[in-house]
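Annex B.
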Amino acid sequence: MVRFLLARPIAVGMTFLALLIFSIILFRTLPVSLLPPIDVPQIVIKVNYPNTSPESIEQNVLRPIREGMVTLSGLQDMESKAGSEVGNVRLTFDYQTQMELAYIAVNEKIDRLTNSLPEDMPRPQVVRINTNDIPIVRLQVVPSDGVDFAEVSLLTENVIKKRLEQLDGVALVDINGRQERVIVVTPNKPVLAGLGMQEADLIRAIEAGNSELPGISVEDGQFRYYLRLATRIETPEDVKNLPVRSPSGYTVNLEKVADVNYDLAKPTGFHLYQGKEGLVVTVHKQAAAKMNEIMPLVYEAVSLFEKDYPQVGFDLTQDQSTLLNAGINNLQTSLLFGGLFAFGILFVFMGNYRTPIIIGISLPASLIISFSVFYFFDISINVISLSGLALGLGMLIDNSIIVLDNISRKNKDGSSLFESCVTGVNEVMSALISSVLTTLAVFVPLVFLSGIAGALFYDQAVSVAAILSVSLLVAFILLPLLYHLFFKNKPLQAARQDSRLFLWLLRRYKVVYKGLFAQRGWSLLVLLLLIPLLLSTGWLLKVEGLPPIEKFDVMLALDWNEPISASQNRDRIQQLMTQMEGQYQLAESDVGLRQFLLFEGENAIQQADLYLLFNSREQKEQVSANLVRQLQDNFPLASIDLRDAPNAFDQLFNSDRPYYEVRWKDLGANKPVTASIMDPWLEDFPVDSWSKGPGLQKGSSVIFQTNLEKLTLYGIEVQQLIDKIEQLFGNYLITDIKRFGEITPILLLNDQVNFQTLLKNNFLYGEDDVPYSLDQFIRFSYDENYKFVTADKAGIYQSLTLDSPNPNQYETQVRNWALGKNLSIDFTGQFFQDRETIRQLMGILLVAILLLYFILAAQFEDFLQPLIVMLTLPLGIGGAFLVLWLTGTSLNVMSAIGLVVMLGIMVNDAILKIDTINRLRSRYSEDSDGLDTALEKALYMAGEIRLKPIVMTSVTTILALLPVVFSAGLGADLQRPLVFSVIGGLTIGTFTALYFVPLAYWFLARGWVKKKVLV
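Efflux RND transporter permease subunit: predicted structure tokens.
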């Protein structure tokens, strides 16, 4: 094939040029995003039911929803959590589930359940979780002093949001911190009492003034007109002028008996930026959009906002595109330094400049053609796929060096230039194909991991397969063509020179080789003993998901565990910010309930998230420690969780599931076990280190008990009492003013005093309109109730989280604890998921090792020689572990990717070394008198022939990665574990390929030969 193609250089060159142009066109259409658009198989149903207890939300809302969702196809797990005024149901599906169809099915079931849910509750929101839901940037909108917050909320909702949504590539714009304007009616109770009126008279007057005719029309000759009542109200002035009639028939304007004004609705949450109240707008991209093209548009739009609306301050924060830019910059750095160092090393070792230029052409050509594979496999350019390309670049340089070195060697031995190109490629073709297949055999099976890890590995596996396949195409066709073109008019001597450095290195190699082979047995034994010694360092490594990235920001999650209002929550956060003023660079906080459509986390009024950005790591550690200490001293009941601010990777990989959770259900009743019974039981719990789950956390509450006998005696209906309580303690909605899509509620506002005073100063009217104060019918008491009601498919449960490093050992003791208490026990958590993932990983790796062995056995046509390659792998892994341990680096996702990179290069070197030994051994056996002589000569010459490509591939790869070690920034922090893995593995791997492979081959071949002779 090579001979055929080299005979037609113009056709081959034009074909490659056309392929490059076609790939560039496809590359421009590829979406660019931070992460692959992975459908996380979860759907969250969010419930918002104001002024409702957790028990009521569970009984009347969440339980019917759970029962309605049980029949969903592919449903794996279902959990719900009811809190005060809010609740959610989290549905988890199998990874094979079509989430688009599941989302539609969940919405259909919610629509069917509408009639069985409370009428006054808004429709539950259905949120589908996707990696594209992670916002790419947050826009802070802060009104200047004196500017109406409600007007800024309308501006953000109706203008800012819509202008951002019009940008190319923007899928959704979400807002938190909105505050709506309402019309507040505050009754003047002494005047009302003097006129013999009640609040009910005000309410009737306002409802009558805002009534509409439901589509009534009249005819006037041949024309038809729709009727509209001219008495409809629109402003507070209209409300003030409404007539109110007393039971005695006396009529006055409403402004005589009540104050009417615009005000802000009672807030349930706030957003703070730099200590000031504001709004935050999150921007989400479309799946097929390019993040690096969207962000300039967003920045341009914000600059226009600053000019158009000077009364409002704008700022962009938490720009997630920095992660993507770091990945792209790392790839560019790898290409630049890889090309420069390959050029330098090839020049040093080969003494000519043409060969490096050939590699300089082949590297970008391979990369560009690889992007065409992305297009056909529907893969976006993201951090995961880019890391796969970076992984394959080392193999690409490796293949290029091997092919060019073999062609040069054939040319040096006296073959013609054409024959050198043909035979040089044909000799290494099968070995290079095997090395690529073995790399894919190690890597591609990881795609079959369940969960997000397997979904992420899909993008990486496709990118690795793409660049390795293209690298073979380039190595077998383009490289010999370029070599023939560059050296066509050059004398043969120009390509035959070896540099002085290489000749010196060759002499040193021969000295060490002869020394080791003088004591073959001891040398091999020492190398074999290094395997367990080096691998044992793996036990000393800390295991993490992602490498620790140097961050200057933190996220403080607070739960005050006190029944405070959203305003009190805001005041506490503002006080914290004021006390820390000047100690941070940037601060923003989401306080109370979040208004984000895509927010699927826990929502409670007494909770707050505080984001802080610092100038340095020292400042971050010092201020954070002082902040936590201060909170613990001043608010001992508060739950404090301080961690590095999560980026998109953290949000994707980190799980909210407890590590090990013990759940129980009361078999006697489908309700939580009361605190009076549960507290003594927990004192006898057999494990010391545990923390309460949500279903056991307590909160203070006030309990009203009504005196029904008195109500009946005084002729008062129970509904009158309920309506009065709603008017006093809730945001009592009288009516809504609807105008061109804008809704303005009219609320009844009572005195803002404690509830005991309200009970004394407000009255119910019995027979003959005799007034009775509310405290005659209501007794109140304080109590502690559960803050949340948690449930799963089987019903309501309560739980504990075990903090022990090996919690599984207590399973028997916990089951014994439940005996006699009529409790069913269940164990769940991330512990079991991790154990299942490890089990799958071990099975997949076993399959990968078998594939690796079968490919090598087919390549060598031998069942023993693949074992030599297999034995080099633990040596390389051990070398990587050693360097990771010496540098204090953990074993994480990036270092694991580095292991795969290193193993691919090591396998490549070992395969080519054995393939060369086999060819030389076959050639020398025909001319040699003894098998031992032919074997030793083949081993010796193969080492000399393969010394240059082995050393060059290792040195170019290591030197190309070294700049990352000394770089700073997010990209370098991500890539540094990968670099340490590769450097450690290749340092040992180079020595292994040079000396361990021939030693192991000698012993295996000698044993095989003796066995053959005996037979």
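The chain has a mean pLDDT of 81. The two ends are 41 Å apart (CA to CA). Further annotation is deferred to the next reporting cycle.
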